[in-house]
Every structure is written in C-alpha cells, then in structure tokens.
C-alpha cells in the first residue's frame, strides 16, 4: 500500500479545515471498507487520510423523531439494519442494508460512506429513494440539503463539492397506511453484488414509488412507471415497461444487459406485491 | 505529509497495549508482523474472505481493511485471546468435536465470526449462523460441519450458563 499520513480531528471545524487544506490529496475515512481497498488497488492515492471517528459533532447513533430518522455520518450499516424503528417503519431500508457485503463489512461500513461512494449497484440507495431521503451537507462556509435523487451524479460521482462532507441523511416517515420493501437479485445469498435491486412503496391512497439499482449508471426513481401504476393499478405490466425503458444496464460477469432488463419487471412486481401485503398488517 | 509512527493505546485480548504503528499499515499487518499474532490469517486482503476476522469492540470485522491507527482506544480480541486459563473456548471445542476443520486456514476467522455471533445471541437459528458466516469463505468447503459446530457451541454455552445460575 502507498504511504500516507493519518489524522483524527476531534471537531467539525478542525475537520473541514484539514479537508480544505488537503484538497484532493486528502481522503475521508468513515468505515474504511471501501477506502482501504481503493487505496490498495491504486484507485485512490491520497497522501493524507482524515478519520471522522473522533469528530464530536458527527453521529455514530441513529436518532428518530415523529418526522423521520436521522442517520449520522458514522452510523454503521449494522446499527441501521438492527434498529427496531428502522425494521418496523422503514423495512425497505433495513432489508437493503442487510444485503450489503457481509456481517464484518456491515459492522464497520457506514451508510453515509456507502452513499458517497456512489456505486450504481449500491443496495441502500433505491431504498433511500423511495423514502424521499434528504442529504445534509456541510462545508466551512455553508450548509445545504439535497434530495437523494439529485445527489447521485454518475458511477462514483456525487453532488459533493471540494471541501464538503455529508453530515447526515434524513429519512422522512413514510405515508400512513403504506407498505415498503426491497428485493435484490444476485447469484448467491450472502455477500454478493446486486444484479437488480428493486425498492417499492405502496400506499393505501394509491401512491406507488419505485426505486431501482444496478440497472443504470445511477440508481433512479421510475417516475413514469409510478404514475401509471397509480392511475391504472390493474395494468401493472404496462407500468413496469415504463421502468424498463428508463433503465440502461451494462453486461458484466454477474449478468447480461438482457437478463437485467428482464429481472427489473420480475423483481419490481414481486416487491409491489409484498408492499400491498404489508399495508394490510 | 507525516508518515511517522503513531502511538496507539488499546486493549488486546484483555491486556492493555501501547505500540507505535505506521499510519498506512492495516490491523492485520500489525497483528501478524509486529505483534507476532499469526493466528489471524491473511488471504484476499480485500475484506472478501473473512480469514482475517477479529472482534473489535464486540463486533466481528475483517482486520485487513482496518487501518492500524483506527484501533486507538478500542477493545480488540483475536483468536489467541480465546483460550481462558489453558482451556479452549467452547466454540473451539465444538469445531474440533464436530470435525469442522480441514486445512484450517479459514478456521480462525470462522471461529471469531461465530464467537461474535454467540456473544450477541447464544441461541441462533441456522439462518442466523449462515448470515453471520456469509463473509467467511472455506475453500475446503466444510460448511455443514462448521454450521453444526456453531450450533453445538451455542448449546454448550447455554447449558453452561444454566448450570451457573
Ligand atoms: S484477508 Fe481479510 S477478508 Fe480476506
Ligand atoms: S478448512 Fe480449509 S479453507 Fe476452511
């Protein structure tokens, strides 16, 4: 591995100062499950690694209020998937997070880190999309919020500018009388990358939300399909064709483009059925 | 840029330790090359195979993707720390008894993952065990006996607890 320095600032001010100073030779370390690998394979070559671990303003915990939950920059994936409020109120998020990596990875990795790496196949992002999650960003000068839909810009690319960090993710409470779920297609059950990831939310009011991952350069909301599924619930098949039109998957060693396109319909349909069952409960 | 040694303090298998580490070394490297604790194995070195699993603050993690300075202030347990007063841990006993060990290379990692699971839940169902061990690969493919061993270790632990109370 290349040589780099390591620092552990203990306040946000100090962190943002270091980040500005380091410019693009600095790398932020949260869980490190991606960063350390990226450094090892030479995908990233920082000369300074800045750990977020001791920054007192950044949260390891998950906090909730009536309006929703806030996931801190240091909240691990394990903490999220095991949280009773997440399991009960945000089942698609709990299910998606549970599909990321292995237990060891989830014990160390953070959701914010996962989001910032902006993998097209990231499991949690379709779930964040259907819950209309909002990203809180902070820099030395400013604070701003961006809907998760606008945060992802391309494979490995986000809306984060030089000197900015993600402070937290806010996930609003889903509509009353709704059900949600996340399904993942992969070659094996544990610790495998996603072929198609489908998150859905269905409300008694008729509202339908669909978030898809691993079938385009960034996970996306299938708005046209959602509208059709709401207006003509009996014609789900035609609605799902709209979702397929919006996708542009690649072929890789995990699956061909054609297989992915076919699986969008299968998995989204299944996810919507599960959502409907969940409303009843 | 200063790549000088960093002093870290942590608890290693119940003992306090202060050592100096390179900022760009991984925990696995430090354990094996600096502290001579070679029970922790290295294989893929990318967090995929689980051979290097240790228990950090009560949670199983793969030490090949933890940076050494990160463990400052943490509590660390490695396979070497499982023996208590010369007695093997119930998880180790169960692996031997169930014949779960073939070449043995994956076993320290398997045992640490199993140990972390049983600390949290000493009555796991098979699905819990499979999930906890999904990040540990055994290329001798002795998975069934490994699952048997973890089930049996859980039972031993519950019986021992019941006998105590
Ligand atoms: S050597 Fe660490 S996970 Fe394989
Ligand atoms: S016993 Fe040989 S790799 Fe598991």
From TrEMBL, chain A:
Keywords: Flavoprotein, Oxidoreductase. Residues 1-176 form the FAD-binding PCMH-type domain. The keyword Disulfide bond does not apply. One of its GO terms (molecular function) is oxidoreductase activity. This is Carbon-monoxide dehydrogenase medium subunit. It comes from Brevibacillus centrosporus.
Automatic annotation (TrEMBL), chain B:
GO terms for molecular function: 2 iron, 2 sulfur cluster binding; metal ion binding; oxidoreductase activity. PROSITE patterns: 2FE2S_FER_1, 2FE2S_FER_2. SUPFAM superfamilies: 2Fe-2S ferredoxin-like, CO dehydrogenase ISP C-domain like. Transmembrane segments: none annotated. The keyword Lipid biosynthesis does not apply. CDD domains: fer2. Residues 6-82 form the 2Fe-2S ferredoxin-type domain. Gene3D superfamilies: 3.10.20.30, [2Fe-2S]-binding domain (1.10.150.120). Keywords: 2Fe-2S, Iron, Iron-sulfur, Metal-binding, Oxidoreductase. It holds the Pfam family Fer2. PANTHER family: OXIDOREDUCTASE WITH IRON-SULFUR SUBUNIT. This is Purine hydroxylase delta subunit apoprotein. It comes from Brevibacillus centrosporus.
């Amino acid at each position: 591995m290349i040589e780099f320095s390591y620092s552990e600032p203990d306040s946000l001010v100090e962190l943002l100062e270091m980040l500005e100073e380091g410019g693009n030779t600095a790398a932020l370390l949260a869980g490190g499950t991606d960063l350390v690998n990226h450094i090892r394979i030479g995908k990233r070559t920082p000369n300074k690694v800045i750990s977020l671990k001791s920054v007192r303003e950044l949260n390891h915990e998950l906090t909730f209020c009536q309006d929703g939950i806030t996931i801190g920059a240091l909240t691990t994936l394990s903490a999220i998937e095991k949280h009773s409020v997440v399991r009960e109120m945000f089942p698609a998020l709990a299910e998606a997070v549970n599909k990321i990596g292995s237990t060891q990875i989830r014990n160390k990795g953070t959701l914010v880190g996962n989001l910032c790496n902006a993998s097209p196949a990231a499991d949690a992002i379709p779930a964040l999309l259907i819950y209309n999650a909002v990203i809180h960003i902070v820099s030395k000068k400013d604070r701003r919020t961006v809907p998760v839909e606008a945060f992802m810009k391309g494979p490995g690319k986000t809306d984060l500018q030089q000197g900015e960090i993600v402070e937290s993710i806010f996930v609003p409470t889903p509509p009353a009388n709704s059900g949600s779920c996340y399904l993942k297609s992969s070659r094996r059950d544990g610790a495998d990358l996603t072929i198609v990831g489908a998150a859905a939310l269905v409300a008694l009011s008729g509202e339908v939300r669909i978030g898809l991952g691993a079938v385009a350069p960034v996970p996306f909301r299938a708005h046209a399909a959602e509208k059709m599924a709401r207006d003509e619930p009996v014609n789900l098949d035609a609605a799902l064709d709209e979702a397929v039109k919006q996708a542009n998957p690649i072929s890789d060693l995990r699956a061909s483009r054609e297989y992915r396109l076919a699986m969008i319909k299968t998995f989204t349909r299944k996810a919507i059925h599960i959502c409907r069952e969940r409303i009843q409960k | 840029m200063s790549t000088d040694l960093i002093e870290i303090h942590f608890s290693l298998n119940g003992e306090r330790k202060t050592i100096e580490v390179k900022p760009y070394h991984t925990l696995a490297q430090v354990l094996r090359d600096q502290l001579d604790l070679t029970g922790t194995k290295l294989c893929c070195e990318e967090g995929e195979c689980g051979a290097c699993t240790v228990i950090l603050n009560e949670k199983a993690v793969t030490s090949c993707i933890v940076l050494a300075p990160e463990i400052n202030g943490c509590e660390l347990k490695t396979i070497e720390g499982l023996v208590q007063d010369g007695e093997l841990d119930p998880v180790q006993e169960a692996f031997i008894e169930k014949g779960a060990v073939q070449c043995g290379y994956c076993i320290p990692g398997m045992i640490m993952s199993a140990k972390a699971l049983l600390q949290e839940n000493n009555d796991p169902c098979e699905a819990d065990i499979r999930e906890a061990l999904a990040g540990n690969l055994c290329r001798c493919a002795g998975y069934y006996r490994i699952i048997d061993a973890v089930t049996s270790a859980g039972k031993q632990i519950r019986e021992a607890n019941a006998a105590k109370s």
